[in-house]
Amino acid sequence: MISGLTLGERQTAVCLSLALLVLGVIFAGAGQGDPLGVHGFIIAAYAVVVMGAVITGYYAPAPGADRLTQYYDDPTKFGIIVAMLWAIFGMFVGDWVAWLLAYPDMTFDAAWASFGRLRPVHTTGVIFGFGGNALIATSYHVVQRTSRARLPDQLSPWVVLIGYNLFCLLAVSGYLIGITQSKEYAEPEWYADILLVIVWVTYFLLYIRTLARRQEPHIYVANWYYMAFILVVAVLHIVNNLAVPVSLTEAKSYSLFAGVQDAMTQWWYGHNAVAFFLTAGFLGMMYYYLPKRAGRPIYSYRMSIVGFWGITFFYMWAGSHHLHYTALPLWVQNLGMTFSVMLLVPSWIAAGNALMTLNGAWTRVRDDATLRFMAMAAVFYGLSTFEGSFMAIRPVNSLSHYTDWTIGHVHAGTLGWVSMIVFGTFYSLVPWMWKVERMYSRKLVEWHFWLAMAGTLIYVFAMWNSGIIQGLMWRTYNDGGTLAYSFVDSLVAMHPYYIARAVGGFLFFLGPVIGLYNILMTIRLSRETAGTGIAEMPVVALKAGE
Amino acid sequence: MSMPFDHETLVAFSKSFGLFYLIAMSVIAVVYALWPANQAQFDRAAEQIFDDGDTPCQ
Ligand code: HEM
Ligand code: HEM
User: Fold this and answer.
1) Which of A24, A217, A312, A545 suits a disulfide with A44, CB 3.0-4.6 Å?
2) Could you tell me if A313 and A337 lie in one domain?
3) Which amino acid residue places its CA nearest to atom 13 of ligand 2?
4) Tens digits of per-residue pLDDT, A321-362?
5) Domain co-membership, A524 together with A414
6) Residue A477: what are its φ and ψ, rounded to 5°?
7) In this structure, are A467 and A352 located in the same domain?
8) CA dist A282 to A276, A422, A464, Å?
9) How far is A325 from chain B (nearest CA, A)?
10) Helix, strand or coil for residue A486?
11) A48 and A139, same structural domain?
């Protein structure tokens, strides 16, 4: 991968990692006695690894000018592998946390192994590590193909990926040693936040610069969704993380917001993280890879545009449904509730558009597990958005809030929709990227699909049951007018569901493990067949029955 | 402390202007998507993803 960089780019890469090393050493020194010091060492070690990789490839022959006649796919390949590694890590911790809820004593009396620290390791690992790397990797692929233009330079895609993964690493390692801002999905502290701003602006500029070089007059709709993801996440991240550090040598900072304003800002961020991180970006993925794999253009291009503007306008106002029955003014709660219900329209436009695209290719869906992943993703997208709109209605929320129903909703969205669209996409993309005809093992893709289906269904049904039971137990009164059940009674009632969820989660976790194996074997296959002619085969979508 | 606008003003503004600008934006988006003259480029875009020779234009 270094051999693809020009000599100048290799030099800049060394300089950048040197700068990072210096920064890490400064933090390590100045932050002595504070958790920041530990992060200084981690930054320095990361910089050494990156620099080592660049220097190892430094004397490889420079790439020829003919590289400019090809798309630049090395960062995409890297991103795919890294995303799979994060998937395995994040879901492993997710299942760990699931067992921890069933058996709360499993913490070995160690602070790092407590629920409060491991839980954000899970959420960050899967959302940002797995989801984020998958989005970045595929966005590079999609923007080049649909613009018919190569990325404008070879260094900034790497700056984005390397910087972004450093952010993820600082985040998860920070939680384990007790660093947190206490804002869900925005836990990392100020210095990690600043790093992410730099990375994200670079990403935004890279995307815009590639679009500016496009050879197609119209910008394909998938890019709009990816752009919304990049742009809005930048805005959300910057606003929600406005904070003042206690000092430049300490990790701790204090938010600029307080009280109900803080809560509203956080959930404006939190809900739009769902909207623009877990939805818009993956819709971009869906609008490119699903038609591509099915070999059929999107059913209604017009509706994809109407849906796009619906999602971008409406989602912005929905965040307050996380704050029903709080100090937030009632009209703001009503606003969030109304927009959440309206959101069902653009959401179902997207889900319906995907399923209508497949209409007429159902035999293909039956025979091709990769396409089936994408079809199920669309179904779960429709399902979780319906559920979300329903849960946003205040009286419904009075039952669902604080219960496992929310957790069931979350994982219908993240396992059924986000993960499945990524796996379907990767199984399409990997053979294209490594220029082989197909994945190493179609059987393993099939296995992965059924593990994912079984895992999702077990998980979601367990949480729906547990959530409703919990919610009802908490609002059941006896004749004397007092609560019929104590909190501990509800915990006991949830125990079997927690075990079921942990088992379902384990099945789901096995998926990316065999997925990564299949991908690595495919890469090996591509090395073996390189130069035998197969590599020059044109890229075609699978035909029915294959 | 005097503020350029107080809470009530802000609420009144968002409740009135907010409604109309949202309706206006929605109308613009729908008109753009359904405008007959745009259909050709949409069709082309929807088909374009299939005919990539997998090399960029020079
Ligand atoms: C092996 C698969 C997975 C398992 C076993 C698992 C398990 C868990 C558990 C036990 C929790 C804590 C629930 C609680 O506090 O009551 C949780 C929370 C969460 N997980 Fe997962 N998870 C998995 C996959 C994923 C994936 C792939 C994503 C995202 C792409 C995800 C996103 C989340 C989020 C956002 C939360 C926080 C929910 C909230 O605060 O309401 N999970 N997960
Ligand atoms: C129309 C679309 C959607 C609406 C209106 C919606 C609405 C809601 C509502 C009302 C809650 C519960 C808030 C609470 O009681 O605290 C919630 C929680 C959540 N939803 Fe959705 N949802 C939608 C789609 C999705 C999708 C597609 C995903 C994931 C891919 C998702 C991920 C989440 C997460 C992670 C939470 C938990 C937040 C937390 O408390 O940590 N949602 N959503």
Assistant:
1) A24
2) yes
3) A322
4) 999 999 999 999 999 999 999 999 999 999 999 999 999 899
5) yes
6) -105, 150
7) yes
8) 9, 8, 25
9) 20
10) coil
11) no
